[in-house]
Automatic annotation (TrEMBL):
Binds 1 Mg(2+) ion. SMART domains: alkPPc (SM00098). This is Alkaline phosphatase. Residues 1-21 form the signal peptide.
Length: 600
């Protein structure tokens, strides 16, 4: 009774975790040597395991949960650790009540041990009569020809592919299990050799031809190995880490993506690149949250290269805020736009809580035009840093008011709901199509993608970022004045916060299509500098596995938040070499003014 109460309390604690089994999942976790877990049965059950293994040793009329007689711990029996908790879990409807296989691995003499197992199981009719629970005998088993002598609720683990027994005996077999180490010494790091992979594939195919579920024991126990066995079609995946394996498998749907979007790689001419010739226009492109791994995912999913990877001037930015190791978008956007580090949540305000001149305001005094394009709401933190001054990023009405008073000649983004005032009163002509912007002769023009948030590419936004970039550049070029244009791909960050690889990849490739427009414009003009960077990294994103040929990316994450990792910066055009190296994000502003020969 002590063990039952103890484990019920522990299970209720474990069940608060959002890792319970999913219905109709493609994977099945086998908790190997489960009795060695700190919470036997409960940890595996709460984390959705479909097969739980307990070693038993029969001594003094007791079935101990142990690997050997020498390891016996009084009180740790199959009844206390497994049968009582299992019966209680189902009778109280705890957890997901997944289909469950209890694999009893006999370590003592098989016939006497199995006789005792049957005697004990009869005390638990709710287990042996439950169609969702299967009892499977492994380890020291009776002779195969004796399998049919045991009750219907007793099944066996068959451990050979040499031959298939009679149909009557085969009906008593629950699954086929083999030692992985007999096929390969692979330790779960890197990849199986081609020879070992072929041997493992052939073994799994032969096992499946027998018509029973298949399991390896003695397997490497890593994320790489779990994914490999899943892809190879192993039915029960062996692990000593049921909680970590459950988290891994249950998140695969969000972390594995096969890409179909393609960015046609633009090959620059390099005629103006890194040349010391006057810069007339600057295009600053910001991938929100777009760290090195995010960029890598888009590149690899796009066949191994993008327009961005054609650029030769590359550096890294340090992104910390003035008051925090890890920045938010407001402080990072302000640093890029003003050349000053500031506190998190600040929009165009210094550490003294006073407005700082941003680049669009400074360049206005030099007869430059400016524009902002984003796939966020136009009042979002990053674009707002280039035209607004508010103590907090949530002061959206104040930010909207600042837009009306700003020095921008062009804006494109979401968030029309924030603008109750008549924009025309403040000089902006609001249009309904991107083509109208490109051909417009208006002095100040704007377009809203949406009333609130902008749809993602996966949710139907289409090619709007690239079209907005192309038409925005047409509009600004038509004024025959120098200009500054900020273009933000905002939703790389959103998907990284949500730990969803599909969005990171598609938003990254969509961003590259817009980057192609900017680089092509720079080639045509000969006097335009293109800068591509990020405000910060989001998600602690990594790429453990993938496939360049089919565009498959498997990602992993360490957080749902921003990180302090440096972010890449790329540049193309005259004086692009000035942006090489490692430096603070606030230096971007000063470098832009330097190449424009407008140092304060």
């Amino acid at each position: 009774m002590y063990y039952t109460i103890k484990f019920i309390v522990l299970f209720l604690f474990l069940s608060l975790r959002p890792v319970l089994a999913q219905e109709n999942k493609a994977f099945k976790i086998h908790s190997h040597n489960d009795y060695l877990q700190s919470a036997p049965f409960w940890s595996a059950y709460a984390n959705g395991a479909n097969s739980i293994e307990v070693d038993v040793f029969y001594k003094n009329n007791i079935l101990y949960a142990t690997h050997s007689e020498a390891d016996i711990i009084e009180g740790q029996t199959i009844e206390n650790l497994y049968l009582q908790p299992l019966e209680k879990a189902y009778s109280l409807q705890l957890g997901a009540k997944q289909e469950l296989q209890l694999l009893i691995d006999i370590k003592s003499e098989p016939y006497s041990s199995l006789k005792k197992i049957i005697s004990v199981l009869k005390k638990y009719p709710k287990i042996i009569k439950n169609p969702a629970i299967q009892i499977v005998i492994s380890g020291n088993r009776p002779k195969v020809e004796d399998y049919t002598k045991y009750p219907d609720y007793i099944k066996f683990d068959y451990q050979s592919l040499d031959h298939k027994p009679t149909a009557e005996i085969w009906d008593k077999v629950a699954m086929v299990s083999l030692s992985f180490k007999s096929l390969s010494p692979w330790n779960g790091k890197g990849r199986l050799t081609m020879e070992d992979l072929e041997s493992v594939k052939n073994t799994i195919e032969k096992a499946h031809s027998f018509g029973k579920p298949f399991r390896f024991w003695g397997t490497p126990d890593s994320k790489t190995a779990w994914k490999a066995f899943l892809d190879l079609g192993v039915d029960y995946i062996n692990t000593d880490k049921p909680e970590l394996a459950s988290i891994y498998f249950n998140s695969l749907e969000d972390r594995v993506f096969v890409n179909t979007l393609h960015s046609a790689v633009y090959k620059p001419t390099y005629e103006s690149d890194q040349k010391e010739i006057p810069v007339k226009n600057v295009i600053l492109m910001i991938g929100d949250g777009n760290g090195l791994s995010h960029i890598s995912a888009a590149v690899l999913a796009n066949g191994g290269e993008t327009s961005l990877t054609q650029l030769k001037s590359i550096g890294f930015l340090k992104t910390s805020a003035s008051d925090d190791f890890t920045t938010d978008s407001a402080a990072a956007g302000t640093a890029l736009a003003t050349g000053q580090k500031t506190y998190n949540r600040a929009i165009g305000m210094g550490t003294d809580r006073k407005p700082i001149t941003n680049i669009t305001e400074f360049l206005d005094r030099q007869q430059f035009l400016s524009g902002c394009i984003t796939t966020d709401e136009i009042v979002g933190a990053t674009p707002a840093g280039f035209y607004a001054h508010q103590l907090d990023r949530d002061h959206t009405q104040g930010i909207a008011s600042d837009l009306l008073k700003s020095k921008l000649s062009l804006f494109i983004g979401g968030g029309s709901a924030y603008f109750d005032q008549n924009l025309k009163i403040n000089g902006f002509s609001i249009v309904n199509s991107l083509e109208e912007i490109g051909g417009s002769e208006k002095d100040k023009i704007g377009m809203f993608f949406s009333e609130r948030g902008v749809p993602s590419y996966l949710n139907g936004r289409g090619n709007q970022l690239a079209e907005a970039t192309r038409n925005g550049l047409r509009f600004l070029k038509g004024k025959e004045k120098p200009f500054f244009l900020m273009v933000e791909s905002a939703q790389i960050d959103s998907y990284a916060h949500a730990n969803k690889v599909a969005g990171i990849v598609t938003e990254g490739i969509d961003f590259d299509i817009a980057i192609s427009e900017a680089i092509a414009f720079a080639d045509r003009s000969g006097n335009t500098l293109v800068i591509v960077t990020a405000d910060h990294e989001t998600g602690g994103f990594t790429i453990p596995q993938g496939n360049i040929e089919n565009g498959m990316i498997e990602g992993d994450f360490t957080t749902y938040d921003h990180t302090g990792a440096m972010v890449p910066i790329f540049a193309y055009g005259p004086y692009s070499q000035e942006f090489q190296g490692v430096y603070e994000n606030s230096e971007v502003y000063h470098k832009i003014l330097k190449v424009l020969n407008l140092n304060k």
